[in-house]
Each structure stands twice: as C-alpha cells, then as structure tokens.
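Attaching the record inline, Q. Sequence:
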Amino acid sequence: MGKNYGKTNFALAAGQGNEEGIKLNQKLYSRRIEQLSVIVDDENYMDSIGGLTSNSNYISFIHNMYLALISGRKITSNMKSAITNIVWSYAKHLREKNDPALQQQKLEYINKVDSVKHKLNECNYTKGYTYERVTLSRIY
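Structure, as predicted:
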C-alpha cells in the first residue's frame, strides 16, 4: 500500500462504479465520504495505526469502506456501522492528540520509564537481567 494513503489511489476506482449508485451514495453519505476522505489523507494517523501488522488490515478496511462509498456500492447497515466506528475512532485519536492534559500525562509516564532505565543502568546488572527489565518496562 505504501505511504500514499490519499484519494489518488481511489480516483480510478470511483469511475468504475455505476452512476446511479455513485449519485445515491453522494446524496446519502456525502458527510461520511468527506470524513473518510480526511481520514485516508491523514498520513500521520495512518502511520500511527499502521505500526502493527494487524493494524495494516484495519488500514485496508478503511480504504475499502471509502472505496465502497465513492464507487457507488450498496451500503449495508453493517457497513454504515463500521464507517461510523471508523469516524468515531479517528475523532477519539484527534481529541487525545490535541488534549494538553493527556499529553502531559504521557510525558510524565515517559519520564518515569526513562528514570527507571537510568537507575537500572547505574546498578551495573548483567546485560541479560537488564534486558529483561527494559523489556518489561516496554510492556507496561
């Protein structure tokens, strides 16, 4: 899929749908189409959720839902629900990203973890023991 998450990947696919379906989806789901367009174009968000292999399936799913909307495909109730969940998830991501209190909390947590790592290095434990503790600190 690469780093090009944007609409350019979907331009040709949109032309392959039936005209009636495209017009109907534009009429019924214009707001969702705009929202998914923004989500697909947000490379920072796509990179942040694409770090794990399992999440690359989620990225494909987001693209498939966007493609279904712009190509005129019939949208089922399950698809509507999934699209709504995608938008809510993105909105939550934006709230967390822009929340100064949460950013401060994350920074404090990172500082605590760094402090533990520093203290661990000062103790001169064996490399194996240190590795186990650093690995545990990444998990929690």
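The CA atoms of residues 113 and 137 lie 7 Å apart. Residues 99-140 form one domain.

More tomorrow.
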